[in-house]
Amino acid sequence: MFSKYKFHILLHLIIFMWGFTGILGVLIDLDAFYIVWHRVLIAFIALAIGLIFMKKSVKIKSSKELIKIFGVGILVALHWMTFYKSISLSTASLGILCLSTTTIHVTWLEPLVMKRKFSLLEFFFGLIVIYGIYFVSSDFNSSDYEALVYGLFSALFAALFSVFNAKLSEDTPSHQITFYEMFISIIFLTVVLIIQGDFNAQLFEMRWSDFFWLIFLGVLCTSFAFLATIEVVKRLGAFTVSLSINLEPVYTIILAIIILNENKVLGTQFYIGSTIIVLVVIANALVKFLIKARAKKLN
Length: 299
Description:
Number of domains: 1
Number of helices: 12
Strand content: under 5%
Oligomer: single chain
Order of helices and strands: HHHHHHHHHHHH
Radius of gyration: 19 Å
Shape: globular
């Protein structure tokens, strides 16, 4: 019984851990930028060790491809920076809710990058999401609005690197892409810290609880989750995985209520608006599946 569903269980464990990353942005008592720097460094080291044990090559044949990967690596760093900044200004629930709009950005990016036909249906879903965000933000204060802006930019960066990674993966193995993206991300973040004058001893000053949460964030929520997802996709298929990932905002909001008591901070309108957004994202994935299934039957 367990062996039959073990990859489904593993998939939802991974999504649960991803949902927990927003909570860690509140639990870890460090500047948002510092959290991202430590996360990427720990994830890069853990990923390198994992690839060595798995005997995976990281050699990329084309220097042109490597330059493209480095560019996407900077987008990854910008995504995490804006995501944790959004959480630090407001709540974990708002940060992850904004991130759920990533799928909507993909609808206009894929036709440009992947030369795919523009979908009016996806555009319609996008309009509903915009309404959901308007509904959520109706009783925001100035800090919440700033968090919303950072969160929506985070979703945009996530969509950009997702689409570009899909393009890159046509010619390059995904583990090589992720390895070099982590590498350039830590270089980029370090350079920014040096320019700002923040690369100093304060970067390493933290509580023991912060240290252990950072290890959990970098090793389990990032490196392990990535390597495990590759295996899960092979076993369950890309659609099952992508559809299930849409549950991440649900997990985060539930965790935020249980652990952070965010239900005392966020009103009814937030939860109504977030329900609209999450349902649209899931509906978008389901409609895509039905369209593909119908196309296969006709062929």
